Amino acid sequence: RLLRIDHVGIAVPDLDEAIRFYQENLGLRCVHQETNDEQGVREAMLGVGDDTGPRIQLLAPARPDSAIAKFLDRSGPGLQQLAYTVADVEAAADALRACGMRLLYDSPKRGTAGSRINFVHPKDAGGVLVELVEPAEPVHRSG
Ligand code: MC0
User: What domains lie within the chain, and their CATH numbers?
Assistant: First the structure.
């Protein structure tokens, strides 16, 4: 039910500065940027190489009471989440609930580029905040 790694999310204090760092020093390319008001984040998606594989997501707080602001206060900048692509986020969430994991939302919320998302609580996944991403475009299972 987890099809591939969708992206790895990194909390950063300043989005523009982080994009510059990744572009100039690591040669990654910014392929998408948006503000997600519900999540309280400004985010950028960076492609690696030919951009056919998982992306790097830079996450900066848009509000002081947001999840990313809290993460930066507690842990500082760094890896915040690991996101998997799924074909059906409700079915994937139900399967993980059936294994005893706590999902953060009863029903999916809106993620990057019109995707539908949910999260497993990091305490139920070995200390990793796991995100489930159902892209807006239907997923090709073999791709
Ligand atoms: C907290 N903890 C983490 C963690 N955040 N562990 C690993 N990775 C993280 N990212 C640990 C703390 O160190 C603490 O451990 C315990 O979890 C605290 O749990 P809590 O009190 O239940 O929760 P909070 O208040 O710390 O919040 C954590 C939680 C929150 C995961 C529930 O960040 C949240 O709701 N996240 C989901 C939304 C989100 O992350 N949005 C931003 C990305 P100890 O051992 O000290 O107890 S938006 C996004 O990603 C969208 C745009 C997209 O991709 O499309």
Answer: 4-134 (3.10.180.10)
